[in-house]
Amino acid sequence: MRKKVRLYARPDAIRRGSGDYALHIAKRLIEFYEDYFKVPYSLPKLDLLAVPKHPYAAMENWGLSIFVEQRILLDPSVSSISYLLDVTMVIVHEICHQWFGDLVTPVWWEDVWLKEGFAHYFEFVGTDYLYPGWNMEKQRFLTDVLHEVMLLDGLASSHPVSQEVLRATDIDRVFDWIAYKKGAALIRMLANFMGHSVFQKGLQDYLTIHKYGNAARNDLWNTLSEALKRNGKYVNIQEVMDQWTLQMGYPVITILGNTTTENRIIITQQHFIYDISAKTKAHEPQNNSYLWQIPLTIVVGNRSHVSSEAIIWVSNKSEHHRITLDKGSWLLGNINQTGYFRVNYDLRNWRLLIDQLIRNHELLSVSNRAGLIDDAFSLARAGYLPQNIPLEIIRYLSEEKDFLPWHATSRALYPLDKLLDRMEKYNVFNEYILKQVATTYIKLGWPKNNFNGSLVQASYQHEELRREVIMLACSFGNKHCHQQASTLISDWISSNRNS
Description:
single chain
């Protein structure tokens, strides 16, 4: 039975049709979640309320979701693709809470990351349902969630995703990026190592068993373990996930070729931390003893071929594994960055990967290319890798046509630029970056204006790539970019209207 979906807003917004888009996708999303979870929406109606001001961007209530106006109202004829995406994802998030948060509620505040992590993860899954060509879960998740939260969670000041809450004043602090973004990243890792169909069946069972009630994280882990068991896989999800949720931070895996034994590699794990001084102090932080059970996916490749994906469960500080490696073959770990950890290699393997990117970067997926860039810059920043390796990796960028690797690069370059801009040899770094950007900047150009002043909208990915490259070019001093930006600002001022 179709549910009644209504939107309430100021009369002028209703007359302009600014709520039509939200109403349209809300109806589709209820159908999506009902089909995915196999649990019907539990109320006869869902109301969406747009208000001028609210303490939060949006807030779910059972049957009534409240949004500040700029997170739900839009005019498709003038709104940018980025704005449409923001509105879409907030609506996807809040409607997911009708199942995760309202239908099934965490027992206590320490598990608030479950409802927020699931809603944040499904922002990308649900948006993929609405716009399949955008590849949100496979690509945009990396830029908006994984890479962002790993920056924060790599600090010595981080905390576990599950935090003890003893007083009412503790509640607000658990609603942070660790709860939302790390929670979502751990859920994504779960879905990938379990297999998406088994994971989905486990969620269906969890919601069916606990609907109209409260559940703790162990209830979810037990249900997911049972789903795996029915498929002939025996993994104690609670044992695995307790290490990821009750410990702060995340590991860095290092894969080393064994020089004494052919076709053997050494895999080590340690707690990744940006603060180099914390790793070298006499009184090392207690988290140095942390261990994780890590689902390491791995492939072997050469200039023209990549092997099928294998998974190795790494649970010790150091392990030996047999891998068939021909001369000139490279290893790649954490395929498509589905795992919540970083991967380092010996310098020989890094140079083989750099050579592969230069010769034929498309042999590696877009997500793998972005993952290599993000890992390399982060490992170098934290002292695990020589500083020249990440700068050598981006030598291939003039041939890169996808948004994701460019975004991973710019995220790393902006803070590096601030560190180097007062150094004597800064111009060498600056010219090197401008050289990598120049070809793509010229190819893409600036967006054209049509007769009524609104931007001609290309595909989402293409538009995001163009914006990323223009920002890099202008930030690093491309003269044409500065001239074009100045011209646009002057035209806007003289026309006295916003394009």
